[in-house]
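Progress against Task 2.4 (sequence-to-structure conversion) is shown through the following example record, which the project officer requested during the mid-term review.
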Amino acid sequence: MKCIDLLIGQYRCQHPKIDESTQEPQGSPIQCYTAPKIICDGGVYNETLDGYVFERNTTCRWTNGKYYRTTLALSLFLGIFGIDRIYLGYYVTGLLKLFTCGFMFVGALVDFLLIALQVLTPADDSHYIIDYYGPRLLWTEFNENRTYLKPQNY
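Structure tokens generated for the chain above:
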């Protein structure tokens, strides 16, 4: 088995350098180590670690300046006026919320929940800027005893 094909839990990686402005990993690849007694191809055996050392590329998420905390605060306090939707780039829906008091407050509550669950993302298909170790959700799909990470492009 190749080192790159190892499952999560069979290896550990060094913490990547985090870009201050986007909160995304900087520089790729990062150095990873297999768990003890795991054998893989494409790595160099290290006796001290009792495992293999290999490099793994980090994933990159495109951000465009929309902060998760700001969006959540706008939705909580100004959601009935549609400011949260306008901030995310959904101008028509934002104006509809403005003129209907957040769709009679129900739309404001639904939008707050959608933003909190990170289902409602910016209109340009970018991702929120969230602290690297913050409340970032990774959607998963379970199928045939395997787990896949689903991209957040809905």
